[in-house]
Known about the structure:
The protein is of the alpha/beta class. It contains eight helices and nine strands. Helix 6 packs across helix 8. The chain starts with a helix and ends with a helix. 30% of the residues are buried.
Amino acid sequence: MTSNLYTKHGTGLGWLLVLVVCFCIAGCSVNQSKVSVREAETTESALNPIATVSPEQARSLLKEGYIYLDVRTTKEFLKGHPPNAYNIPFFIVDKDTGKMKTNPDFSRIVNATFRRNKRIIVGCRSGKRSAMATKAMGEQGYTNTLDMMYGFRGVANAEGKIINPGWSALQFPVKEGNGYSRSYETLCRLAK
């Protein structure tokens, strides 16, 4: 009888396929609406180069122990940032040309400031710089970095109207000033 089973179903692979399908069906019946943000992060990280969170999710995660890395310029950071944010600009102004360029010290200062398994939410003004910074950090081995969509201000349309509100547009807490021990100047000094 065993030889008939193997003959009918190849080398038993048919039964394996049946088992896999059963497990998949059982797994799909779980209530997907109760999937936690952390589970979504893990799934999204496996599928995309970077994982993203909304400003609302970021606010909740900060209460759970994530830290906020603001990659805007120091000038932007001084005008307002989420409380307890760190500031390491991804782009800086080139003193010779006056144009923005990638911060050559970004990776060095990030590495000196954070462990690679630190839970970090990366934000900027509208989400573009933070996406680039999050990707760069992932390439350096950071495993728990999340890009905050829409950034600090939010995404505006051609007329300048905010169409996807960011942190400040949602009226979440904002601090002004350099952030003292979390300022770019201080982090540069500590990284030496």
